[in-house]
Protein: Carboxynorspermidine dehydrogenase, putative (EC)
Organism: uncultured Campylobacterales bacterium
Amino acid sequence: MKNLLIIGAGGVSRVATKKCVMNINSFGSITLASRNINKCKIIANEIQKEFGIKINTAQVDADHTSEVIKLIKDTKASAVLNVALPYQDLSIMDACIATKTHYIDTANYEHPDTAKFEYKEQWARSEEFKDAGILGLLGSGFDPGVTNIFCAYAQQYLFDSIEYIDILDCNAGDHGYAFATNFNPEINLREVSSNGRYWEDGKWIETKPLEISMEWDYPEVGVKDSYLLYHEEMESLVKHIKGLKRIRFFMTFGQSYLTHMKCLENVGMLRIDEVEVDGKKIVPIKLLKELLPDPASLGERTVGKTNIGCVIEGIKDGKPKKVYIYNVCDHQECFKETGAQAVSYTTGVPAMIGTKLIFDELYKGKGVFNLEEFDAKPFMDELMVQGLPWKVKEL
Ligand code: NDP
């Protein structure tokens, strides 16, 4: 029995669900569930029209572990792909433990009251996953996800030891709006406006938001200002890449985006605590999310490319070596294939690949794992054929 339950029906889910259908030989029945069943039905109808394959839809509020448990049992799922918001991770994980069902997600846990991403809560469930005899695959998106796989591939196949890693994330897409975020604004804006952090010589070093920047020439995109941010994959990579001396993460932002964000921050619109307005309590960033364009609606109008990769330096056969492993993705091509732009595409494809590798029994284990703990080769091979081809450039 290889039934899959996908929870969440946003941009990432749209891509992951379609890609699962395109790889239907690895899966049994597929059920797409979310808080709003209509969103699931829209995706299911498109799939039925395009591929002639029926997927099931269901309504679930993943805040309630009992609802997820019931749905897993009803659908006889052997794995749950969680592409809902990250702070639902834990209830879905708990439902997987209770029902002995494999678990895959694309992001790490963010407590709703603190702007802090961390794996602590997900890792803490490893013993329970072991006891239940199930596998939890954490962060199977692009970053985290493919960036972890690029680092693992370098460690396992290209280097004897790795000393420095810079993860470089460029989205050069243009959606034509004065201001919008390419994925959930709550997550995106919190990520960018928080203090930066990188890891060097065994400790974390904190920087002010966007304090460190550099120019980088991204293949097929061009030179872009890139800013140092904290990003979740570093938390697991410092544990699993042996001999590492430093790891940093950079993301590109245009000046207009940064000016809008600074202004919103200055007036308090990025606050995550409740404020009272006419006797009603609201969280400013949630109101902002309602006002901004829905990220899922950006696909059709976004043109340009993304380039995400890792510059990795280390030693091979006693000599210094430096490589750049990256993928370039075109927003319009992604939209033509899946109806979603490249940010959802680059996340949804690896979410499907992680799930497929578990269903095909190429990734096996009991407990909770990050991607770099597995052999990178099968994942790298799948990326090549599933729409995210990569290049390795010697620098
Ligand atoms: P969206 O916000 O577009 O979609 C999230 C979906 O989850 C919506 O359908 C939403 O339903 C549903 N949802 C939210 N809460 C619940 C709940 N309690 N019960 C059931 N369903 C719920 O997000 P994306 O598709 O853009 O992103 C999905 C995930 O991927 C996120 O966790 C995000 O952090 C992660 N991500 C990872 C990246 C990576 O590279 N690793 C990059 C980009 C995203 P509703 O419409 O009702 O709110």
